[in-house]
Amino acid sequence: MARSPRLSGTALKNLARFARTRVGGMALQKIFRVDLGIDRLDGLPDTLREDVPLDTRAHSGRPPRAPAHENLPLPDAGWAPNAAALTAAYRERRASPVEVTKRAIAEARRLAALTPSVGPLVDYAEETAIAEAHEAERRWREGRALGPFDGVPWVVKEQTAVKGLARRAGTAFRDTGPQPADATTVARVRGAGAITIGTTAMTEYGMTPNGANAKRAMPRNPHAVDRFAGGSSTGSGVAVATGLAPFALGADGGGSIRIPSAINGVFGIKPTWGRVSRSGDFSGGTVAHLGPLACGTVDLAHALELMSGHDPEDPQTFAAPGRAQGSFVGALGRGVRGLVVGVPDSEWADASESVQRAGRAALAALEKEGATLVPLRLDLAKHASAIGVVVIACEARAGLREDWAAHADEMGDDLQVTFASLDAFSAVEYIETCRLRTGLRVEMARAFRAVDLVALPTTVAPAGKVTDAEMRSGFLDTKVIDGLCRFCFLGNLTGLPAASMPVGCDAAGLPIGLQLVGDAWDEATVLAAAAHLERIGVASPRRPRIAAALLG
Question: Which architecture does CATH list for 24-535?
């Protein structure tokens, strides 16, 4: 099917002007409907539609699992030092938190000074970070470290509040003053001794997955600077991929943790809806989650342990069931023997040859290690991206009504086109789409009666090419949007936990991600499988062409 041409620069600016007319907005929405598969939703049978969603809770397929545990060792660290390597250096006096923090900030500035930029940070917390590093150094010297992240640098996506820094959410105008307090997630990780060195660049309002934002000097892909780095948690993905930080905070409304994880070759998890508090985060609506990206499953699990838990400031966390402390990290040694992994071949058929080859090889490795692969039929999964686009775009347009009215001229041209085209959606169409969303939730709950995991590609293809001009102006390409979000919206619409892990590269050396989706509240099984792939060397970050060095 022919798609609309890729637009940037003057052509995109002219399109934005046209889009903001009544005729233009309606005309463009007709084009987007076809390009993104939205036009096919109306023809789906009523048997796939359920009631209007009554809540946002994730639906479990069956009671919590009690899998066997093989007590396997934790996976080894990759090419970059993880938190354990850094804290071992602190313990053995080979390095100090102050030295590592200063080096991380210096390396972030070095990456930003490259042409084109590979700098992931948009704001620096240098003074606070160094002060906290001195405190961590004193704790290590006195033998009272706070835990596995004490003195370890990390970074936070710029839509989540960090005390003393702006929370602009990728815009040129919003929340430009210093935040008065940390978001809940940031406070929990800071309370464990981690050093927040700054906030990471994101696409504008997180509304595009391509990693371009005309309002920022966005980082390129460290594996190949003529490729985009994905989004919307662009800087968080690049920070981990370059080794600047062992872990980072991202946010995911339609794949925005998993897409940059796959595109940059790191690990990332979108947890179950309500697992991690959104208090202090810019996100609204019913699909956006917070979660970590990391250089390996050990740091991923430790970060999720810290971020999770009930928060009186976010009632969505109240539905989370109780769990044993350390259960996520403990699951890393389970192994995969006896796991049943559902493989929907109709979904895999839409991925590129290189993605299929790497992903299928990883699944074959799981099977060799004792998992069972079974075919899985999912009728609505192929439409998840179209459903998700309608849901997230309409929710964002409504939630940003005042910004659109007062600051539309200050927004990027690509976002102006997107928002201007949304007014042509009717309330009935939005509700009908939400009924399909409920149908998808029912379909996935039914699938998890018989399987423990569902295996999908993370993206259709590895990172695409991008020009300097496109990065400066932003660009609009519906084929790129669909290819990046095609397999990710399923997790956001259902609220199910989903992780991406690096399982190889294409012929050009560009990373490829495998996505594993778990039953509601069963992040442990997702982490167990990801850790086993890492343990046997199938899932492993590759050192990029441009990298940072925290230990010299």
Answer: Alpha-Beta Complex (3.90)
Query: Is the CB of residue 477 less than 8 Å from the CB of residue 496?
Result: no
Domain limits, the chain:
24-535
Q: Note the Cα 541 to chain centre separation in Å.
A: 16
pLDDT digits (tens, 9 = 90+) for 93-145: 999 999 999 999 999 999 999 999 999 999 999 999 999 999 999 999 999 99
* CA-based nearest residue to 171, from 218, 212, 204: 204
Strands (E), 93-172: 121-124, 153-157
Contact 339, 309 (CB under 8 A): no
- Nearest Cα to Cα of residue 415 among 226, 248, 172: 172
Length of the chain: 552
Per-residue pLDDT tens digits for 353-379: 999 999 999 999 999 999 999 999 999
**Maximum CA pair distance of the chain?**
69
Question: Comparing C-alpha atoms, which of 250, 221, 258 is closest to residue 114?
Answer: 221
On the question of a cis peptide bond just before residue 116, with omega within 30 degrees of 0, the verdict is: yes
Nearest to 414 by CA among 14, 36, 117: 14
**525 vs 502: CA distance, rounded Å:** 18
- What are the residues whose beta carbons fall under 8 Å from the beta carbon of 69, sequence distance 6 or more? 333, 334, 335
Helix axes 97-113, 83-91, angle to 10 degrees: 140
